[in-house]
Amino acid sequence: MIYFVIERKIPDEEYRQVIPDLDDYTKEPPGLPPHLRHIILNKSSPTMDPLALPNPQTVSLNHLYCTAIKDGMMVLGGTHRYREKYFTVVFYSIMPISTLH
Questions:
Q1: Dist. CA 30–CA 101, nearest whole Å
Q2: Most buried in the list 52, 72, 75, 84, measured by CB within 10 Å?
């Protein structure tokens, strides 16, 4: 059996990292994708049962949703799926008075 060994000389420049510019760190973050703006908790119930919510979009699962602090309270929520069932967890947090000013 004959084996061939091919050597490739790679210049050192290909392995160097570019130092990011300061403008890369000070840019505004990208906007929220439109499909994540449809929060299931902001929709009305399709039935007369106020506890029944519509099935969420698949892209909105496993995302953490946060409201702005209003009246000293912050609300966090997320919707998850286990097999064919969906469950939504909502956390209400009262902000200390010292952080509101």
A1: 28
A2: 75
